[in-house]
Amino acid sequence: MKQDKKMIYTIAGIFIGIFGLLVGYMIYFTIFKQDEMSVHSQNTRLNTLESEVIRGKIYDASVDDNIILAQTDEDGERDYPYGSLYAHVVGYSQYGKTGIEALGNSELLYPNYSFLSILKRAFLNQKFEGRDIVTTLEHDYQSRIADAMEGKKGAVVVLEATTGKVKAMYSSPTFNPNKIEANWEELNTDEKNSPLLNRATRGLYPPGSIFKVVTTLAYMRQEEALQGKDLSQIDLDFTHDCKGSISGDDYTIKCYNGTVHGEMDLSSAFAKSCNTYFVALGEKVGQSNLKTEAEALGFNQTLDVGFGYSMSQFNLQPDDSDFEKAATAIGQGRTLTTPLHMAMIASAIINDGVSMKPYLIQYAMKQNGQIENQQMPKVSGTLMSEEEAYTLQGLMEGVLDFGTAVKLPEKNLVVGGKTGTAQNETSEDHSWFMGYAYDPQDDTKAPIAFAVVVEGGGIGAQALGISNSILEAYRAS
User: Fold this and answer.
1) Predicted TM-score (pTM) of this structure
2) Sorting pLDDT into bands at 50, 70 and 90, what band is 39?
């Protein structure tokens, strides 16, 4: 009898435990995963609403200008007035949902159960109307960037540094979401161009010399730890005599075009993007410290972002070759990142070290204009101290004053940045620029941060041309 009772209690305990797990599982999805589940393409409840509700409109940031990015036409078809211009960021609502169409799905299908709408539904068989969505996107930025990117592959992200608003997000090659059904098979099988891939958030690229921001920060923090002092009290005095190349046991790494820079300090090496200096600096910092600081900036980590993205990768291992370690210090090797992530780092630098969570939707809006679910800026974390941010600002502004980006016109703005040429095994090198800008004459104008990558655009530094279109939009805003 005792054994039977023990068996019964054991079985009962197992079932109670399983039941508890199921309850906990349901609570977890109901409370913590409700936003994600509400936009999931397999949510049958929303599929039912599709037949009962006219999907709401999607606007750019200034709803008063009536710039509609997506709407439902008289035939019930989803229409994208600007065609391919917003294809990746706004997305599409056929063949599953992507972009803002997915992020705002529950709002776009939220029925307006007013007395009048219920009467129309009951007696005239008219559909309910969903809420409209007002995004953070600004049409002038998006259109100028698209014009500059014409004929190029790559991506651009522009953030408002003090809020995290995504002012522009563009990926090329692009596609026309109005023709997604007709062109689906071709778009989905084009492996050469991958037009459906949002390169701004999902494209992983070797960062090249823009990674020198990370190597520099690792050096700063090493010196702070070694000297036990605040950065403002430290002289960053590491120097190196650049002879155009630097060699180890199994490698030789050259500066761009084999340029001999001569005696370099941190400021001049950062501005001129001297590879040999940063290889030597990487040796001083060490692989372990470099990995620690890369991960502190978000590599190999989950980013605080409310939409889909690819995780940046820092793959250097302790037993890797000296060549891999040297290459990693200058952004080569197996390090990969996205334009979104590098724009977030640039944003933290100009925002005194504070990283803001990027977001795409400002608020939903009822048909009567009443605002619902307004999104507010959210601090994601502190990536660096104010002193570290100020030091990086000085170095990045030197890139435009006397370095590799002197051709980028500032025109009364303060602009800081870092150029990058990332080696690409299959074609021409990629061209990068990450940076920020602010207007010293207008305190009411929030600074912007941005990242640009042009595939195969290394020769001629094509990313600088795209960056100029961003600065022109900022001046005009």
Assistant:
1) 0.89
2) very low
Q: Which of 390, 443, 449 is nearest to 418 (CA)?
A: 449
Domains and CATH numbers, the chain: 207-297+308-330 (3.40.710.10)
234's CB contacts (< 8 A; 6+ apart) are 220, 223, 224, 227
Q: For residue 429, what are the CA distances in angstroms to 33, 184, 209, 298?
A: 41, 31, 12, 25
Those residues with Cβ within 8 angstroms of residue 242's Cβ, 6 or more apart along the chain or in another chain: 255, 260, 261, 262, 263, 264, 269, 274, 276, 277
In this prediction, residues 136-150 reach a mean pLDDT of 98
- Going by pLDDT thresholds of 50, 70 and 90, the confidence category of residue 448 is very high
How far apart CA 363 and CA 131 sit, in angstroms, is 10
Q: Say how far apart CA 257 and CA 274 lie, in whole Å.
A: 11
pLDDT tens profile 255-270? 988 999 999 999 999 9
The DSSP secondary structure of 339-384, one letter per residue, reads: HHHHHHHHHHHHTTTEEEPPBSEEEEE-TTS-EES-----EEEE-S
CA dihedral in degrees (219, 221, 225, 229; nearest 10)? 110
